[in-house]
């Protein structure tokens, strides 16, 4: 919630990537990329960015907005990439959408580690269940304004 109050959605999407060294040769997977909000930031550092999402509508927006990346329509729990394909896997604002107790989250995390090279980096930014009514209101407002 700190990022919402001091930096908005841009900071929220990039906060886990700050202080990382991403070179032009870094192989990056922007998992659950949506419309490409984080992809736009990643493509400034790397020439090898793939955005993966299940929504064709979101991917079409991402392709229009950030055509330098490659986009793949797929589920994150069954990716068709080879083992150890990526140096960096980034996920922002998507794991909270998986219902607790479902095996999907476990399958997704196994897949992430399968496609992440040995010694690679996983970055993650997401929401947690808010504990106070004020944070519930802020979270609801954020989703209403910024999520697709």
From TrEMBL:
Whether Methyltransferase counts among this entry's keywords is yes
For this protein, the record's CDD domains field holds: AdoMet_MTases
Which Gene Ontology terms describe the biological processes this protein takes part in? Answer: methylation
InterPro entries tied to this protein: Methyltransf_25, Methyltransf_Superfamily, SAM-dependent_MTases_sf
Q: Which UniProt keywords apply?
A: Methyltransferase, Transferase
Entries under Pfam families matching the protein: Methyltransf_25
Give residue ranges for domain Methyltransferase: 28-120
Please indicate which superkingdom the organism of origin belongs to.
Bacteria
Example GO molecular function term?
methyltransferase activity
Q: Per its record, how is this protein called by name?
A: UbiE/COQ5 methyltransferase
Q: Which organism is it from?
A: Richelia intracellularis HH01
């Amino acid at each position: 919630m700190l990022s919402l109050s001091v930096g908005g959605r841009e900071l929220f999407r990039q906060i886990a990537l700050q202080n990382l060294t991403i070179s032009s040769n870094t192989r990056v997977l922007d998992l659950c990329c949506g419309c490409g909000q984080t992809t736009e930031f990643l493509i400034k550092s790397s020439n090898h960015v793939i955005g993966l999402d299940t929504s064709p509508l979101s991917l079409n927006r991402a392709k229009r907005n950030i055509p330098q990346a490659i986009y793949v329509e797929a589920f994150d729990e069954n990716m068709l990439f080879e083992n150890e394909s990526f140096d960096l896997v980034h996920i922002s604002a998507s794991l909270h959408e998986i219902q607790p107790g479902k095996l999907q989250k476990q399958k997704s995390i196994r897949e992430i580690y399968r496609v992440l090279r040995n010694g690679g980096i996983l970055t993650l930014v997401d929401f947690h269940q808010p504990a106070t009514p004020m944070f519930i209101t802020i979270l609801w407002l954020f989703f209403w304004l910024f999520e697709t």
